[in-house]
């Protein structure tokens, strides 16, 4: 049995991961988010602990990490680098070393061509936080981090994806949340996969200048 802490647990992808872990594993889950009432559907599950907390509160996050084996960070927003610094401080204090980190395409300047140019404009306000977070995580190799860089997310009920490495150009323009959740669940089930790595995720054969549904 693995003890998993999910930060930003009310996110759409995080909730898919939560349900899959509860259905497919015996893992115990600690769900950390602002306004814990948003996950009240899990209150009576004896494998779930829900914590109402702020991602900048190092002491609260450190306490939440007690006896935790693996952390999945679903945090985001323009303040992501601030959250990442607090996360690293808490993990260091709690002596937790395995992290799955939800990043974004473009975090490594890896998206080529016109789609890369479009992506820079579309999420330009957020990319500095992802890029600074990448630098912070790479400065802390004592924490084994797998960063995930998904393409633009869809709500398609499908699992269909391929991966690219950090040193490869990004492929495709979109991927389903179900696919991203599937990759995260695989990492939680087999945490030795992709150590200290950054992995791009996309649906095959979705290349273009922007997502087809835009």
From TrEMBL:
Q: Which InterPro entries match?
A: NAD(P)-bd_dom, NAD(P)-bd_dom_sf, Polyketide_Oxido-like
> What region holds the NAD(P)-binding domain?
8-191
List the molecular function annotations (GO) for this entry.
biliverdin reductase [NAD(P)H] activity; riboflavin reductase (NADPH) activity
Q: Which residues form the signal peptide?
A: none
Q: Can you say what this protein is called? A: Oxidoreductase
Highest classification ranks of the organism: Bacteria, Bacillati, Bacillota, Bacilli, Lactobacillales
